[in-house]
Amino acid sequence: MGPPQKQPVLPRFEPFEQLEAGEFLEADDRSIGGGGPVIVDCNWFQHFENVVDPWHVMVLHGSFSGTQFTETMLRAPQITFETTARGVKVTSLRALDDGSVFRRVTEACVPTWRVVPNPRVGQYARVESIGFVLPIDDTHFRIYTVARVREPGELAGFRSRQGGKLWSELTPEEHRRFPGDYEAQKSQGDITWHSHENLATSDRGIALLRRLVLAQVQVVTEGGDPAGVSFEPADELVSFEAGNFRDPA
Ligand SMILES: [Fe+2]
After folding, report:
1. Ligand 1 ion: residues within 5 Å (CB)
2. pLDDT 10s per residue in the chain (249 long)?
3. Cα–ligand 1 centroid distance for 25 (angstroms)
4. 137: buried, middle or exposed (CB in 10 Å: 19+, 13-18, 0-12)?
5. pTM score, whole prediction
6. Total domains, the chain
7. Residue 50 maps to a domain
8. How far is the CA of 73 from the centre of ligand 1 (A)?
9. What CATH number is associated with residue 174?
10. Domain interval for residue 143
């Protein structure tokens, strides 16, 4: 893909190189975060946009299908959307009972990285995993995930469950009654028609991400280097702002 003289160096990721005591890395190839089959049968961008859609957390994961994450995640957040050097960042603030603030930051970074802290909020910490979304063709993709963990098998525990069951173990009736990310994304079609959409202010992250990706396509068309590409091995680690944090009252 592309001319050999334009081959970028592989990035080094801060979340995987700065380990806390007792942490090690695990990898998973079963599309964690996709909420559906291992090979997801719709366009990858429908998933990528989901990373910067914080409102669906309350609506889909907290209302339609019961509580799929934690009670705290159901509280209505204060949300800000920002474009960064390599993607779009969403900050969701939620007031906690003790007066402190739960600050959750997620990032969608080009080319295809989902930088999403664990939605079950097992700990307050910088992001523990990165999902590398691999578009297979226009209507199929798969997600490869690497995470810092403390127990063998911990990363597999990040997989979506409904009533204790994995997506593949649910009946068709359960898929209908308890939709998750996969049902929401796939039911829009194999490739969504953007011309049929009515984006609202709550979709600001999606609009920013589309603009950012289109701008990178334009840069490449004109012979330039898109965001997120580096040619210098000595370049510093790729760092993210994503994480689940608790700010004192
Ligand atoms: Fe979701």
Report:
1. 181
2. 778 888 888 889 999 999 999 999 999 999 999 999 999 999 999 999 999 999 998 888 887 776 666 777 778 899 999 999 999 999 999 999 999 999 999 999 999 999 999 877 667 899 999 999 999 999 999 999 999 999 999 999 888 888 889 999 999 999 999 999 999 999 999 999 999 999 999 999 999 999 999 999 999 999 999 998 888 877 778 999 999 999 998
3. 24
4. exposed
5. 0.92
6. 1
7. yes
8. 11
9. 3.90.380
10. 22-191+199-223+237-247
